[in-house]
Amino acid sequence: MLLCAIDADSKKNGWAIYDGFRLAFCGLASRSEYPEFVDMFKVDLTIVELPQVYQRRKSKGNPNDLVAITASGAELAGRIGAPVEYYRPRTWKGNLDKTLVHQRTRAHFEHTEDFNSLYVWDAIEYRFGSEQASEVCDAASFGLWWARKCQVRRPSPDTLR
């Protein structure tokens, strides 16, 4: 099963493709861009993180931006053309800090000796820079959460188009 996890943002969406438990590809796509992976793979399911409305003291920005963020994630999911499931951050990461979630994701790849996923993970910051890497790391962590939750299995080779 090929899974696409999307961490939506108003400017760029982080995305990650999982082949079973293996992080295969990841990247960033703006609302106007057509992600390169859409033509390469037949994604079976797309999961999108819905934005969370926080209390005023925990808020990081304008609550009105949440509409644009939701639309951005939904638009990318629509381009992929697979069934879509939406999850709130509290569902998949609870109250954990992003940094801790990212550390746990990397630790999972180390522990399972999944060197391909580890290579893809370690290339994120180098490829996207520290500011944009957070969106990609969130998508990768989100996808791993879903894969572990559902205990997915590797797809057959016919998933490549």
Write a structural description:
- This protein is α/β, with parallel strands linked by helices and 161 residues long.
- It has a single domain (2-152), classed as Ribonuclease H-like superfamily/Ribonuclease H (Nucleotidyltransferase, domain 5), CATH 3.30.420.10.
- The chain is 43% helix and 20% strand.
- The protein is built from 4 helices and 5 strands, in the order E-E-E-E-H-E-H-H-H.
- It has helices at residues 65-80, 89-92, 98-111, 115-150, and strands at 2-7, 12-19, 22-30, 45-49, 84-87.
- A 5-stranded mixed sheet has the order 3-2-1-4-5, sandwiched between helices.
- The two termini are 14 Å apart.
- 32% of the residues are buried.
- The mean pLDDT is 81.
Give the arrangement of secondary structure elements.
Blueprint (H helix, E strand, L loop, with lengths): L1 E6 L4 E8 L2 E9 L14 E5 L15 H16 L3 E4 L1 H4 L5 H14 L3 H36 L11
Parallel strand pairs: 1-4, 4-5
Antiparallel strand pairs: 1-2, 2-3
Helix pairs in contact: 3-4
Please summarize what this structure is.
It is built from four helices and five strands, in the order E-E-E-E-H-E-H-H-H. The chain is α/β, with parallel strands linked by helices and 161 residues long.
What is the radius of gyration? 15 Å
Helical segment count: 4
The third-level CATH topology is Nucleotidyltransferase, domain 5
Strand content: 15-25%
Q: What order do the strands of the largest sheet run in, or round the barrel if closed?
A: 3-2-1-4-5
Low-pLDDT sequence parts:
none
Overall tally of structural domains: 1
The average pLDDT value, as a whole number, equals: 81
Q: Biggest β-sheet, characterized?
A: 5 strands, mixed
Q: What sort of overall outline do the alpha carbons produce when their principal axes are compared?
A: globular
Give the assembly state of these chains.
single chain
Distance between the termini: 14 Å
| Strand runs, count | 5
- Give, in order, the helices and strands: EEEEHEHHH
Q: What CATH first level would be assigned?
A: Alpha Beta
CATH architecture: 2-Layer Sandwich
